[in-house]
Structures are given as structure tokens and as C-alpha cells.
Amino acid sequence: MSLPTVKLNEGIHVMHLFYRIDRMAWDELNPDERSGAREKLEALCSANSNASHPLLRTYTNVGGKADLVFWLFHKDLAGLAQLHRDLEACFPPGTIDTVYSYLSITELTEYQPTEDDLKARAQREFKLEEGTSEYEAKLAELAEWKADYEKFRLYPEMPDWEIMCFYPMLKKRQGEDNWYVLDFDTRKKLMRTHAVTGRKFAGRIKQLITGSTGLDDWEWGVTLMAQQLDAVKEIVYEMRLDEVSAKYAEFGPFYINLRLEPEALWKHLGL
Question: How many CB atoms lie within 10 A of CB 40?
Fold first, then answer.
């Protein structure tokens, strides 16, 4: 029986998977079974190596929380489920155990800047006077930035950098720190300040926020791509100082992962 086709109105499905190798079970495999697992994983990654989706990337966790880490993208929910099963089928039964998994989707934030927001930013951030040629040029530039950003949020093409940090988060719903009882304009203002902090790390961090309300145990998954670990530490620290994080956010476990192609991954793990 084939799985039903289930697509989003816009955006794609995303999954982060973390596994531990059962070394005793792996050591009991014969050489053909081991080489077969390696060949299957390499073939599956090669068949799912598109810029956006379907995509399967391989990592190893740094810190001992997992051995194998996989990042999956697919436009169809059934396609994602099948990719997940095909991935696990690369490994002989009993040789891997799931440590953690996270399901989310790409989406536009409800606080997307409007045309009026772009006009205000041109005046506030760039100190340009309305009606001048410089102002109009900046508006055109910001409109192009907005279109590119929206495309990235929905159909990201993530850089293949060395470090991938992943963590889930949510907004508080208790007492005086209940994010969801704030009016929309207040929430949008706080998020705008948060975005300004994030933009300071352009070129050092590529950030993808995926939505998971109703899909997993947290509300968002945060993926940070970097080429140096200090960039990850700095952006997380600085953004926690913003009121939107300091007062209203809660964070789940952090996973720091190192990008390795399948062949290098096997060698690193000694498999």
C-alpha cells in the first residue's frame, strides 16, 4: 500500500534525526553486511542531494549525545516518511537506536515586514528622507531583500558549512511572561529588535527557523549553520539578551554537529 500524497500549501517538511550506533551489534556483522550498509547510505545521499529538496545531509554529533545525525528535507510528507524509512533501512536491524528526532516545516513568520515596515526601516535604520532618490533606491533594495528572504524561509538552500547547531524552542504561556496574551504590535516590535540582532551575524551564521506547533513537542526548530563554533556561541548569547528571549523564550537541548560526507562519517566513527 502506497502512502498518500500530502503537500503543504507552501514550504517543505523538515526532519532532524539523531542516532546512537550499537557497537556490539555492529561488531557482530560480517564484512559484506558492513560494506552493504555503507554503500546503501552513500547511494541514498547521492540520490537526495538537491540544493533545496529532496535533501539528505549527514553529520556526526560533537559532545556525545549521538553518533549519527541526519537532516532531511522533502516537499511531500509521505516522501519525508519514506526517506526516513529508507535511511533506517541502510542499517542492519538492531545496529542503530534513535536518540532524538524533530519534525517541522518551513514557513513564513507572522511578523513578515510589510511595505510600511520597509519604509520605516529605510528612515530609521538608514537615516534616509522620504522622497529622495536614495530613499527610493533603498526601498527597492529592501523589497528585493524581502522577496529573497521569503523564498529562503519557504524553500531554503542551506550552505554546506562545517557546523550545524540545532535546538528546539518555544514561547512561554505562564503568568506575566505569557507571550500569547501580548497584543500583535507588541510582539512584532519585540521580534523586529530580535531580527536586528540576528542580522549582525550575516556571513558568519545562516539561520533557519522551522515551525513545529502541533507537530512536535516544541514550537520551533532552530538550525544555525556556521564555519566557526564561536559564531554559534556569540549569536545565541547575544540574542538571549533581547527581551523576546530573556523574558519570553524557553530552549530545549542543543546539538552541535560536524558535517561529514558518508565516507568520512564511517571513517570517523570507525565503522
Answer: 17
> Mind listing the pLDDT tens digit for each residue in 90-126?
999 999 999 999 999 999 999 998 999 999 999 998 9
Q: Say yes or no to pLDDT of 225 above 60.
A: yes
> Domains in the chain, please, with CATH?
13-106 (3.30.70.1030)
Any residues with CB less than 8 A from the CB of 59 and at least 6 apart, and which?
Answer: 68, 69, 70, 71, 164, 257, 258, 259, 260, 265
Q: Which of 19, 59, 102, 167 is catalytic?
A: 167
What is the three-class DSSP state of 31? helix
Query: What does each C-alpha distance from 106 to 12, 15, 55, 214 come to in angstroms?
Result: 6, 11, 14, 14
Rounded Cα gap, residues 102 and 220, in angstroms: 10
pTM of the entire structure?
0.93
- DSSP assigned state of 135: H
Asked if 102 is an active-site residue, the reply is: no
User: In angstroms, rounded to a whole number, what is the distance separating the alpha carbons of residues 107 and 153?
Assistant: 6
